[in-house]
Structures are given as structure tokens and as C-alpha cells.
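Ticket #4471: structure export looks truncated?
Reporter: QA, pipeline team
Priority: medium

Steps to reproduce: submit the single chain below to the structure queue and open the exported record.
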Amino acid sequence: MQQQQQQQPPPTTIKKKTQISFLIRNSPIETKHRGFINSLQYDCSSMHLFSAGSDSVIRQWDILAKQGLNDPFLRCLEHHCDWVNDIVLCSGGSRLISASSDTTVKVWDVRKKGTCLSTLKTHKDCVRCLAYSREPSETVASAGLDKCIYLWDVNTLTKVTATNNTVTTSSLRGTKNSIYSLAMNELGTVIIAGSTENILRVWDPRTCQKIVKLRGHTENIRAIAVNREGTMCLSGSSDGTIRLWSIGQQRCIGAVRCHSDSVWALQTDSNFSTIYSGGRDRRVFRTPMRNLGTSDLLFIEQKPIQKLILVNDGEQQQQKHLWAATWDSSINRWPIPIDFHGFDNTTPKVRQPDMTIGGAPSIRKYAVLNDRRQIVSKDSNGNLELWDALQAKKLKNLPQGTSIEDVIRENVRKSWIPSWFSVETKCGVLEITLDESDVFSAWVSARDAGFADKPSDAKVNFGGLLLRSLFERWPYSYQGDDGDSPLQGFYSLPLHTPIIIRQSTDDLVRPLFRTSVRDAASQSDSAMLKDVLPVWVLQVVESNHFPKFNKIPFYLQPHGSFIPKFQIKKFVVF
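Actual output as written to the record:
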């Protein structure tokens, strides 16, 4: 008897949408962090500190220069489009690997030009953490909210070029929840992941086989440290505890309960004999491995602690310091007292850091004025500033004591202009995003928009003008002089203005390309833009006219005074 085949439903087409974003910045180089610091790395040979955080930028600092009271800033590593969550140094300090909420892992040259060598797009969601092992060959692991762990051969990553860009990876299976912490031992025999499952999962990275699950925490596991041999590990959790585990015995062999809140950062000395821990309670404790019940309170930070890096420096490298990454934009270095006498978990042993790398305020609040062009913002220091989205620049600082509400009231216009862009501040600065659905909505009298040289009845389109401005230096942009065009007369934007092109679906937003107003003129970037820019942008920028069939969906609904009830219909206007 012939079996009847069940008819399969047609495959669902995933609708993809391309958006254009740009950042408004005061200066070409942002020498200070804005917002949280998420991760740190230190190169002892060069005495360079690397820091990464919520402003999407990695910065490199010369600590020797700072000790001589000079500016420690060396360079920005800028290519990510969202928070940078973790970084690791490898290849003898010549390469840096970074993980970001923009779903990518990037490889950087940090010895010469500070350039991004390659971008790995294997992850499908925010990449939260990295792990590194030196032996038997250098390996980096990445993990995040997509519940996936990938293993990368560092030697392969550092040889990737534009023509030789094929990279293979191994993956570890079995994780059921988002991963927030990851660690590998120096010998590369174990890799350990912590997640919202509240379980530590252990694999052998050489075979990708799962070894064991370690249970005991009651909340998310945010930090892991493992000894060189891979026989013991530490875990810090949102349940406020630090647990010591025997991987061979597959059980918890000790616990530290010195913190009053979540533990987010763990660091040990090279002998795996001393624990340094920090977290949401802002306190950093030192606990000897031989006596987990006694902890020293070393110092108290101003903000919750995300990462700790232990550094041996000074003469004969006898002096130990802890660098702390916190919810602040500044980075502090704290001297660690050598003595272990008189355990005290209430009085800090160190009152002040001996070095601070200052940060900058981040924008926390904003409002778009009803001219749909100016934006008023308030930063973390309480400063108010006025910005022009159409010129991508700051107009002025507003007087102390002024509120956002005051500025809105003082700048009310009688004419109504529809919204044509959206604003984000998650990276500490204003990020303006243009979307096909509304970018061409704002038609304004040229005189009202400040174009006094245009006829009195002329109109301009804000979205179209801004697109022409962003890609003014792109070699393929329209070069004609159509004086009557609503797209003519656009402003020249600051050349350092970063431009980000993203592609979004219903459940994922990913960066396609990042450039700047200046770099759009380069041979490599201009060719890439030709491939990634959507039609609705190309028609404006290349041809100086608006896309056809601009669809505006809306609903018609009867006024409440009407007695008959009509079925609500959806219409689309072309």
C-alpha cells in the first residue's frame, strides 16, 4: 500500500530590513570611556592596559606614561557597534580578541596600527564572554546568549586576510541556557561554562566531549576561575556565594560567603592559593584558599564591580595591584597589602586607589524637540546639551539649573512635523537611526528649516537631506546641482561621524558594515557600501530622487460620536 505523503506548508520568508544609524560625537577621537567598563586586560611586557565597555570602544593605555604623570591614552580600537563585553590578549600580547553585544567576535592588531584584522559572525545573539588557553596551541572560546560555545584556533585567526578569510570552528553542545561566564585552564584540557541554568558544565575542548555538570548554585553563574591543571575551579554567582569545586570528585569542596550581593568578578594568583572577588556590593575581598571562612576586605569601589585584573609590578615585581572595571567610566588601580594578618571583612585595608584613568559622562536622558531636528540631552553628571540631528553636531551647552522640560517648553513650534528618526543612548552618546518606514515623512518649508536662499514656497525633506549628508563623500553619490530639489542644500557633516548599517529581522539585529563620513570615500569602504546599502538609500544618494511606492500603512476607525459600528480595515497608501 502506497503511503500518502503529507503536504508540507510553504517555507516562511524571513523579512529583512536594513537601517542606517550614525553617532553624534564632539571630537574625532573619544579618549575617555563613557559608561560601564566591562572588561580589562594587562600586558606586563609593555605595561599596557586594555579596557572595553558599554560605549562600544576598546582603549589602550600606557601605564608607564601615567606613572610619569603623562596622558596614558594610546589609541581607540573602534569597529564594534554595541557593548564590548569581554576581551582577551593572545599571541604574546600582539593580538586582542573581543566579544560584543553586536553578535560578533573581532581580532585586533594591538602592537602596530590597532586595526581590526577579522570579524567572526558565527554567533546569533549577544556574545557575553571569552576564555583563553596557551597550550597545546593557543585557543580562544566564545559564548553568549545564543547558548552556543565556539572554539577558535588563534594561529588561524591571526592569519585571516581579505582573500584568505575561511575560518573553521568547533562547537560544544549541551548548554540549554544563556551563557554568562566561561573559563579554560592554561593547559587547554577543560573548558567550563556558567549560565542562567545555575549549573557549571565542563567539557574537554580537545574532544568536545562533556565531562561533568556541577550543581550547587541557586542563581546565574557570573564568574569562573580554574587552576592550571584543570583539577579545581571557582565560581561566583548572583546568589552571593563563591564555590570551590573539585572537577575530579565532581562536587563542591568549599564555599565563601563574604559578599552581601551578586559576585561578578573572580581573580586568583598564579598559584591558585588566593581568591580576589568583587561584585554588586562594590566590595573587593581577599580570601586564602586554605581557609575559605576568613576574608579580608581590601577596598570599596564607588560602583558595582564587573572585572578584576591582578598585576605584579614594581621592583622585582613584588608589588601587587588590582585593576577594577566597574559601572563607572573611570578605571582605578588599587595597591594590595602583602600582609594577611588580622582578617577583617568590615574595614577596608586600602582607602584610596593609587592610580585612576578618568572617564567621561554618558548621556542618560534625551528629548526630541517638536521641530523634529533638535535634541536636548542630559548626561550622568547632570549637564544639559542641545544637538542638531541634521548637522550631526552639538549646538551648545545649556545653563546649569535648566531642565529638559524647560527646554521643550521654550522651543515649542506651532507647526507639526512627523517623526522621521529614532534615538538610542545605550553607548553613552546619541545614536540616530533611519528606517525606510518613516525616514521620508518630514516635509518642511525650506525657510522654516533655515534655508533662506530657497524660494518661499520650496520644501525640503529632512530624511533625504540627511542621507545625502551622510554619504556626501561616497564616490557614487549624486554630484549634480538641482537647485529646486528637496534633496539639495544638505549640510556637510563632521568627517569623523561613524555610520553603522544594520540588518534586522523579527528576532535579530546584526551589523552589516561600519564606516564613517570620511572613510566612505576610501576604495575598500566605498565598494562595500555599494553592496550593503538598501535601494531606498541608493535612490536618494545616487540618483537624487525618492524611492517609488513609499508605503504608509494606517487604520481608519469611526469617531466615537457615530452610532453604527464598522469593521476596522487596514489600508496602504502608495
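Status: closed, not a bug. The export was complete when the record was re-opened. Leaving a note from the reviewer for reference: The chain is about 10% helix and 40% strand.
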